[in-house]
C-alpha cells in the first residue's frame, strides 16, 4: 500500500465530486431527518416538519383582509386609558423622561433639518410622527439589550442617554465623532449604549440581529436583541432570512416593525398585498402582535412583554407598530409631491403621538401642565442651539485618520500613503484648510 | 482514554518516520484546522448548508458536528444572504463564526453582507464595530459544473479594502492560512479549491502543530529559479510547478511563487524575484480582465522591479467566457501546463518544439 494513503485523520477519503452535482441537483442523503418536526408514522400520515389533518373539500386559504390582525391600544386619542388593567402604572419620573425625550427629539430634528437646508450639514432624517415607537420601546428594554436599528430610531438613542452634542458631532463629523467622520449624518452608533452603528443598505441589520441574538443566547443569557425596521425594508430578502433564522435558531430577538405608511414615496398598500407585516409572523412560527405605534403605553407594554417572552422562551417575537411618517423621508425628499396636505394634517394634529401622551400626563396623571410645556420647549431649543453652535465650531478630524480602521492594524501600504500625505500637506500647507482640522 | 493511548502510540510511530512520509489531504488539512481552532476557542463555530449531519457538501467538516454538537456546527436554511448576515451579527456580538459557502458562486447572493456588513464596518464605525468572521468555501472552476458553479472570486474580493483574502494551494497552506484566518479579528475570505480537496501533500512536523499559523500577506517561493518568475495562487501553483519540471529538462529554470494571500498582496516577494529573473508570468484560473495578474503587473510596473524586466509581463488566465459545460470546451477554457510552458518560451524568445510547446 503506497504511503499516499497514510494520513493522520480518519480513513483515506477518495475524491467524490459526484456526491453533490450542483446545488439543486441530485443528492444522495443517507442521514435521517433531525427530530425537530413530527416523525413519519408507519401509515405515512405525517409529513416531515408539520403535523397535518386531511380534508376532502377543495378550498384555498383566503388572506383575511376583512378581519385584519387587531391593533392593541392602551390610550385613546385624548390620552385616556381605555382599559384600566392595561395601565402599566409607570412612575411620574419615567413618564416625564419619556415626554421630555420626545419633545427634545422633535426640537433637535427641527433645528438639524434647517441646518441641512442651510448647507451646514450634508444630510438629515427626521423622526416626526414616530416618537412613541422609539421612546415606548426603548423604555421597555434594559440598557444591556443590543439594538440594531434602521435609521429612524434616534429617540431610542436619546432615551439611552446619547447627548445632544453626540448627535450633533456625528452629523457634523467633527473630532468628537467616535467614528471620526467616516459615516454619513444620522448613521449613529454607540458601543457604550449598545446601539450598533447604522448601516445604509436596508434590512441588512435584520439577519445580523438574528445572529447577534443567537450569539448572546450563548455568551450573555438574560440579554435580548431588538431589531427595528420599516414596512418597506420588510420586503427585502434579508427580512425573510432574518425571521426564518431567528425562529429556527430559537434566538431571543424582538423584531420591531415601524409601519409608517411610506417607503420614501411608495405607500404601504403598494409595498405588500397581505395584512401588513404582522400577518407574516405566524408563517415563520413567531409570536406576533400589532400595536398602535402612536400610543406610547401600548408600545411600552408590548415591548416589555415581548422581551420577557423572548428571554424566557428563547424565541423571536414580532411587533408591528402602526404609525405615520410625518416628515419627508430625508432631506433629499419632498413628500408634498406624493401625499395630500389633508392626510398630513390628520397625522400631525389629530393623531399625534406626542400630543396624545401629553394629554395623558397632563389630564390623567396630573404631573404636567401647559406652562411647564412652554418652558420645556424653550429650554430644549436653547440646549439644542447651544449644542449645535458648539458642534459647528469644533475642529474636523485629523486627515491622518482617513487611513485608519480599514483593518484592526494599519497595513503597510496605507501607512506609506499616510506618511506621503503628511509630508505633502506639510510642505504645501498654505493650499490646504488645515485650520479646520485637528493637526495632521 | 483508549483514544489517548492510540494517539500517543501514533505520535511515537510518526516521530520515527522520516517527515517527508507524512501526507495529508487538503480536505483533512482544512478539517483539522477547524477542529483545532474550535477546540482552542469555544467562541469559534461553523455554519453553512449541510455542514452538520451531512459532514459538509464536500466533507470538509466531517466529524465536527458529531464532536461539537448543534451549538457549534449549524446547518442553515438555504439563504446565503441570510446566513452571511447572521454570521456578521454573531461576530459583532462576540462570537467567531466560520461561514461556509457551498461554493463562492453562491456568495454572490450574500456579497452585500460580505462587503457592506463585514468589510466596511470597522472603518465606517471608526473602529467601534469589529467583525471577526471567516467566509470560506471552494472557489473557481471544479469539473463539469458549468458557468454558475465555476467563477473565480479572487479579484472580486481582493478588490475590497477591509477584507483579507487568502487562497491556499497545498495542505500546509490550508492549515496555516485557515488557522490564521480564524484567529484574525478582521473579516477574512478563504478561497479553497474543490479539485484540491482530494489531493494529498507532504506536511512538515511544524505544520502539524496546533499553533501553526501562516502570516496572511506573505507569499512563498515554492521553487527557486533564475530564468523566469511564475506567480500564481491556488491550484494553478501546482500547474506552474509541473511546467517548471518540464522546462527544467530543457534547461529553463523557473522560479515559482505561491501568492498564498490575495489581499494583502505580497508584491515585495514578486519584486525580489523579478529583479533576479527579469521575466514575469502570472498564472490564474480567473478571467483575464481586472484580475489577479492585472494587479500584479500594475504593481510591478509601479515599483523598482520595472527597470529589471527584459520583456513585458505575460498573464496566463482563464478564457474570457462563462465556463462551458462540455469537457473539451472546459479544458480549453482553463489554463493548462502547456499554456504556462508556451508563455515561458514566448517571453524568453525560445522556439516552442511543437504547436503545443
From TrEMBL, chain B:
Residues 24-199 form the Transketolase-like pyrimidine-binding domain. One of its GO terms (molecular function) is metal ion binding. Gene3D superfamilies: 3.40.50.920, 3.40.50.970. One of its GO terms (biological process) is pyruvate decarboxylation to acetyl-CoA. It is found in: Mitochondrion. Its cofactor is thiamine diphosphate. It catalyses: N(6)-[(R)-lipoyl]-L-lysyl-[protein] + pyruvate + H(+) = N(6)-[(R)-S(8)-acetyldihydrolipoyl]-L-lysyl-[protein] + CO2. It comes from the Eukaryota. Keywords: Metal-binding, Mitochondrion, Oxidoreductase, Potassium, Pyruvate, Thiamine pyrophosphate, Transit peptide. Its main location: mitochondrion. The pyruvate dehydrogenase complex catalyzes the overall conversion of pyruvate to acetyl-CoA and CO2. The pyruvate dehydrogenase complex catalyzes the overall conversion of pyruvate to acetyl-CoA and CO(2), and thereby links the glycolytic pathway to the tricarboxylic cycle. Heterotetramer of two PDHA1 and two PDHB subunits. The heterotetramer interacts with DLAT, and is part of the multimeric pyruvate dehydrogenase complex that contains multiple copies of pyruvate dehydrogenase (E1), dihydrolipoamide acetyltransferase (DLAT, E2) and lipoamide dehydrogenase (DLD, E3). These subunits are bound to an inner core composed of about 48 DLAT and 12 PDHX molecules. Interacts with DLAT. This is Pyruvate dehydrogenase E1 component subunit beta. It comes from Ciona intestinalis.
